[in-house]
Amino acid sequence: MNHKNQWNSFFAIEQQIHYSRHMQETIKLAHSANAMHTARCHIPLRTMVAKQVKFFALKIWLFQGLVLAALCALLFQLYSINAAYGIDAFTWAKHSLPKSLCLCSVTVVICAIPLLSRPTRYKMAELEQSTYFSVRGNLLAQLLFIGTGDIGMLSVLVLLAIRLQIAGDTIFLSLIIPFLTAAASGLMLWIRTSPSFFHKAGAILCGLSALFVYKITDNSMLFLPDTAFYVWILYALICIAVLYRECKKLYCRGIFDMLLTE
Amino acid sequence: MEITLEHVSKYFKDKARKGSPVKKAVDDVNLHLTPGVWGLLGANGSGKTTLMRMVCGIMKPTAGRICYDGVDISQLGDFYREVIGYLPQEFGFYPEFTVQQYLEYIAALKGIPDTQAKHKIDELLTRLSLEDVRKKKIIKLSGGMKRRVGIGQALLNDPELLVLDEPTSGLDPGERVRFRNLLSEFAQDRIVLISTHIVPDVEYIAARNAIMKNGTILQTGTTQELVSQIHGKVFQAIIPSQELGMWESEVQIINLRNEEDGSVCLRYLGRPSDIPNAAPQPPCLEDLYLYLFPKS
User: Fold this and answer.
1) Longest dimension (CA), chain A
2) Gyration radius of chain A's alpha carbons
3) Which of A20, A65, A82, B266 lies in the 20 to 30 Å Cα band around A156?
4) Is A12 contained in some domain?
């Protein structure tokens, strides 16, 4: 039984219905419904993050590279100054370099602040928040790029310290611990405070927290070198757990009102 | 398709005042948005932008809920943002982006696949007359062109709900007409919510309007329904220019025009007996706006 006969028999009481006209209309509606459905297919999160490499990653890494170059130049300059005063490299590495590395690790964290504040500074936060991936997807991508860059910067600083024959535990206490402290405290502050407060005071607060922790590590290793080191390893694991928790909170809940209200 | 606002409120702490009292930006708003163009009118600080941010899911209401086809938008999450196009009042952009890069960036954030994004960007650049400047940095464009880029990004994902906050600010009259026509064409089977101070833009294309004052919705209705309440209150009179100062304090002037013979043509809100020989005029939405917001 062909479709036309089937159609006509179905609508037997409506003899004036024209099969071809209604079929055309139905086909047209089906096409538009299909187009709407196709239009709503979206790219997965990993593809969106990969696309952000083109827009942001290179700029972020370039900026971090410049900061790293400045830090290395500063360290070299300090070494030269000390050498000019007759302080040998070993003495300098043992006493001054750990403090310098602590300041470098804080700088690595603080240089992420202008990068993370770009959406607020250029009034893009509101628009980004209304998109499918929202601020969460965008922030995740940026934190990923910044984190990758930070690991690169820390690696170079660690290699520099090893080259200058600093002990592994000193590198851990003067570089890694302050970095994790500043990063964890900075992220916690950033999520919980308004953008204007964080830009003015957040950098100072997370920097001070790292320097404070460094002072404690210095004193603790002086008095209880064996026990203290294991305590600081535990502390580092706690900081990593805090960082993971804060990033997860950021991703799951987003930061609705925080980015907009001052 | 419909958007329903049920007892929606948004309160902020007013940090500028001692004791941080609560400031009601939006207070118990109920609205039912159906396909078509909706105009949202109100003076500065009436809560329009806050309301739009909540409709877009950017801000959470302090109380009440917003539903899309009967489902709370906080539950819909990504699915709801998939069908939104939003142009904020303070439309920003990263300074290093060209027009094309910017639209590609927003397309990526909206989850639009590459081939579809490319086709849509080409189409929008042509429709918005931005084809010649696609490789130009946005920071170097004129205000009107920047606004068109903003409108373009809002239309990228073919949204079912388009929310535009002051979309025509900075556009010249020709661009405003083109924009109105674009919106009218777009608004079939979709919800378009526009907030603007340029009342004629809304008057020509909005099927229905909502008027906001102090965070609440004063009235909703078609333009004809709303202006009917000031029928018989709008007049026009010709007065000598030396009497202008006297009448300025007596009646609420909507518009004044200096005539060639030195007299002044006044359009005002009031009674027929206010100015001798005044002729009644058919009211428009702008007259209603000034009637409801006299201080503006």
Assistant:
1) 109
2) 29
3) A82
4) no
Question: Do A126 and B90 lie within an 8 Å CB cutoff?
Answer: yes
* Cα→Cα distances B216→B44, B208, B220, B286, Å: 13, 17, 11, 20
pLDDT along chain B (296 residues), means of 10: 91 66 85 92 88 91 90 84 90 91 94 92 91 93 88 92 88 82 82 86 85 90 88 87 80 84 85 80 87 74
Cβ pair A51:B108 closer than 8 A: yes
pLDDT digits (tens, 9 = 90+) for A77-98: 877 776 666 666 666 666 677 8
B-chain residues near A59 (CB < 8 A): 96
Candidates A7, A49, A2; CA nearest to A25 is A7
Count of structural domains within chain A: 1
Chain B residues touching A133 at Cβ < 8 A: 78, 109-111
- Is the CB of A132 less than 8 angstroms away from the CB of B111? yes
CA atoms lying within 13 Å on the CB side of residue B138: 21
What's the rounded Cα separation, in Å, for the pair B154 and B102? 12
**Closest alpha carbon within chain A to B163:** A130
> Exposed/middle/buried for A129, CB within 10 Å: 0-12, 13-18, 19+?
buried
Which pLDDT value is given to residue A69? Answer: 93
Residue A179 maps to a domain:
yes
Q: Residue A14 falls within a domain, yes or no?
A: no
Is residue A15 situated within a structural domain?
no
Fold of B3-227: Rossmann fold (3.40.50)
**Contact check, Cβ <8 Å, B116/A39:** yes
- The CATH number that domain B229-292 falls under is 3.30.70
Q: Cβ contact (<8 Å) for B108 and A127? A: no
Domain with CATH 3.40.50.300 in chain B: 3-227
Angle at A259 between CA B70 and CA A152, to 5 degrees: 120
Q: Searching chain B, which residue's CA lies closest to the CA of residue A44?
A: B111
